[in-house]
Amino acid sequence: MRFTTKAAAGSAALFLTVSTASIAAAETTVAFLMPDQASTRYEEHDWPGFQAAMAELCADCTLIYQNGNADAALQQQQFNSVIAQGATIVVLDPVDSAAAAALVEIAQSQNVKVIAYDRPIPDKPADYYVSFDNEGIGYAIAQSLVDHLKAKGVPEGAGVLQVNGSPTDAAAGLIRDGIDRALDASGYVTLAEFDTPDWAPPAAQEWVAGQITRFGAEIIGVVAANDGTGGGTIAAMKAAGIDPVPPVTGNDATIAALQLIISGDQYNTISKPSEIVARAAAEVAVALMNGEVPEATHTLYNTPSQLFVPAVVTAENIKEIIFDGGIQTAEEVCTGEYVEGCKALGILQ
């Protein structure tokens, strides 16, 4: 493999050319455009997973990676740039799902295929969409919390906070819809909810801090849409001296969230190894470049789609799903203050 790097409008662009055998047309350029750096998943999981799959499936392809750093205008510049560089397929996780409709239109006018990745593009059908089932994720984390509260004997009518994702992310809207579906049928009351700009944990922390002042002990749980907003929620609770922290949800199974589950500060997360979706995107890209019609399991926003079903992780099953399943190792997670918690859960002997 040959790697070169190039600075590009405020984010790092990484170019990869792979030299093993290819099943697709040679000299094809594929761009992989991710939305932000607030989550570590894109550099640590999605991009490496896509690289690995493409190295196997299309070794002669040239890959271009760029991250929009939560800036829709920057991502548009990157989108135009990769097309100018000859990309015929763009895997796009949009900063702004509404603004991305114009990008799809530009691409399709130039015979460039767009694979929407993780976040859908509702206003203009892409050529394909790959993701985990985001509405299902929202429902799963919220229903898991509801079941936990009821098992603990928390009476109906008690109140929860709802910390949603970015208002410019259509996937966040789907997660919110799933959360709403679970909470609406739960008998519990949503005290307040917040759409977190750019999924930024500090924004979630600041909002939750205000709600603690407002509602205090009335808050019996928090449905946070991902691990970053969940971590911000927990930080606000701890800063307010709340002990124990009421159960807080998450999504993404980041190392920080797994550690919070082990310590008892976070109730759940979602295990959705990004490499699964990255692999699917690579397979769709190769099918499209070979003139094939990729098989779809769903249709979402008039776009043929493949949606994967994730697993809810709590302290009860974290060893089985995360560690026995090989998603993370004890050496990576069970460090410092988390060693004793890992021993208590059977992760460490």
Keywords:
349 residues; alpha/beta; Rossmann fold; 2 domains; 14 strands; globular
What is this structure, in a nutshell?
41% of the residues lie in helices and 22% in strands.
Which CATH-level-2 architecture of the largest domain?
3-Layer(aba) Sandwich
Query: Which strand-content bin applies to the residues?
Result: 15-25%
Overall SS class: alpha/beta
Distance between the termini: 40 Å
Helix content: 40-55%
Number of helices: 12
Estimated radius of gyration: 21 Å
Number of separate structural domains: 2
Chain oligomer state: single chain
* CATH superfamily placement of the largest domain: Response regulator
Mean pLDDT: 92
Cα shape: globular
Q: So what's the CATH class of the largest domain?
A: Alpha Beta
* Number of separate strands: 14
CATH level-3 fold name of the largest domain: Rossmann fold
* Stretches with pLDDT under 50, minimum 5 residues: 1-26
With strands numbered from the N-terminus, the spatial order across the biggest sheet is: 1-2-4-3-5-6-7-13-12
For the biggest sheet, the summary is: 9 strands, mixed
Q: Can you write the helix and strand succession as a string? A: EEEHEHEHEEHEHEHEHHEHEEEHHH
